[in-house]
Amino acid sequence: MKVLDRKKNIFKLSQGEYVAAESIESKYLQCPLITLIWVHGNSFESFLVAVVVPDRKALEDWAAEHHLTDDYKSLCQNMKLRGFELLKAVHLEPNPFDIERDLMTPTFNLKRPQLLKYYKDRVEKLYSEAKGGKV
What we know:
By secondary structure, this protein is an alpha+beta fold. Helix content is 33%, strand content 19%. The chain is built from five helices and five strands; from the N terminus they run ββαββααβαα.
């Protein structure tokens, strides 16, 4: 038996795959361009979306020298993410998650239900755009 994550942080995608959000977030956080990330999925969708708070300085430095596609591909390959663990749509958030907006606990853990409520419209738009729909 292997413990992946807290029960409340594990969800099932429409094709039946179980996803441990914190495990995936920790892999993406190894990218020096990412300060914070919240990965979301649900049983009605077959893919994941995320809200990412980039490290502004690192992003500016990196953008001067590289293309995002190359780094994204190498991150996914090096972390050995399975197909359903890859993010299909991402919203870049300029403001870090914080306690004041009730998006994090005092110990700086993500409050997933509050994040979903706060970013509900954005998450719906990410899913729609990723499926090729108009919003």
